[in-house]
Design brief:
The protein is of the alpha/beta class. It is 38% helix and 11% strand. The chain has a single domain, classed as Uracil-DNA glycosylase-like domain (Uracil-DNA Glycosylase, subunit E, 3-Layer(aba) Sandwich), CATH 3.40.470. The strands form two sheets. A four-stranded parallel β-sheet has the order 3-2-5-6. A two-stranded antiparallel ribbon has the order 1-4. α1 crosses α6. The chain is globular, with a radius of gyration of 17 Å.
């Protein structure tokens, strides 16, 4: 498994990459990718880091696992490749943006356009075996991505963290709330959204206001 990450990340994460647990994780993932169908493709495992350098980062969205069906996962949480049908959670994200900002529902579910504007789309686990949700959890990825969140908290100021659902909300303890902004809501999945825990959170307009109040450009969602 090659570690394709922007140098602005590597400066702060190299010590983590050199730890024994991460070396074991690399061996596990390399073995899995040789023996099984996996997602995302190997060259996109660290796509979130490549598309959003630490220097440019201003918003963080935390997901849990990559999509585990063909042609969906592209290394950015909640994102799918161009031309792929939008999964239910992504549909609800776009619906909330429609209501919140009056933006038309997009044809593409590829969120690379967000990443290149400084939105870091991090899954807690960066790989998954085909059709087996959670199959690469508790192998070391969560330790690594927790370290990534701590690094962002320590190295940056006035980042907007969007924590959707119980899993993401647990990451709040890794973030210094005195110098960052944490917005929480239910998860955009149908189970949560249909119970009233997602729609109306207005996280996208709130994010842009927080960014603009700190002299930063808002995100073109």
């Amino acid at each position: 498994m090659n570690i394709n990450i922007n140098n602005s990340w590597k400066t702060h994460l190299q010590a983590e990459i050199d730890t024994p647990y991460f070396k074991s994780l690399r061996q596990f993932v390399t073995s899995e990718y040789k023996q099984h169908q996996y997602f995302p493709p190997e060259h996109l495992i660290f796509n979130a880091f490549e598309k959003c350098p630490l220097d440019d980062l201003k918003v963080v969205i935390i997901g849990q696992d990559p999509y585990h069906n063909y042609d969906q996962a592209n290394g950015l949480c909640f994102s799918v490749n161009d031309g792929v049908a939008h999964p239910p959670s992504l549909i609800n994200i776009f619906k909330e943006i429609e209501t919140d900002l009056g933006i038309s529902y997009p044809s593409s579910g590829n969120l690379e356009r967000w990443a290149t504007q400084g939105v870091f789309l991090l899954n807690a686990t960066l790989t998954v075996r085909a059709h087996e949700a959670g199959s690469h959890q508790k192998k070391g990825w969560e330790t690594f991505t927790d370290s990534v969140i701590k690094t962002i908290s320590e190295q940056k100021d006035n980042v907007v963290f969007l924590l959707w659902g119980g899993f993401a909300k647990k990451k709040a303890k890794l973030i210094d709330g005195t110098k960052h902004h944490i917005l929480e809501s239910g998860h955009p999945s149908p189970l949560s959204a249909n119970r009233g825990y997602w729609f109306g959170n207005r996280h996208f307009s709130q994010t842009n206001k927080l960014l603009e109040d700190n002299g930063l450009k808002g995100v073109d969602w």
